[in-house]
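pls design
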């Protein structure tokens, strides 16, 4: 849910994903999605970002704050395959993350993956997962 009161977009209508951690260009999971990306742009969404201590961050979009990341525009012909892959990689089956619709600060609706576990004891990253050197 994006909080706008409008009907959510279907997978076929929305071909952009907001990434904020290991799927960002240059990070460890970037090669998983890179072949399907047609463009990238910096972006920010509302929420808080935490360090899980496991080598990847956790985003919670219903909290006050700003998460900085990248919007990846996906090739429309690859969209269903990529979303299925990302759902698997992000652990939606286990409930670790859930694909949700969020809106960038520029007003664009995008898919993102929200952390589905408790953030108690996790370190707040002030909205930014460190860039890979």
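designed seq:
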């Amino acid at each position: 849910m994006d909080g706008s009161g409008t009907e959510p977009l279907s997978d076929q209508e929305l071909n952009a994903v907001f990434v904020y951690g290991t799927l960002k260009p240059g990070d460890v999971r970037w090669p998983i999605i890179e072949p399907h990306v047609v463009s990238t742009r910096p972006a920010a969404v509302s929420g808080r970002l935490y360090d899980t201590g496991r080598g990847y961050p956790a985003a919670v979009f219903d909290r006050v704050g700003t998460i900085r990341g990248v919007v990846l525009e996906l090739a429309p012909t690859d969209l269903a395959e990529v979303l299925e892959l990302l759902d698997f990689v992000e652990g939606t089956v286990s409930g670790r993350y859930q694909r949700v619709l969020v809106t960038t600060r520029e007003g664009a609706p995008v898919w993102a993956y929200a952390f589905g576990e408790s953030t108690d004891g996790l370190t707040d990253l002030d909205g930014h997962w460190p860039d890979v050197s």
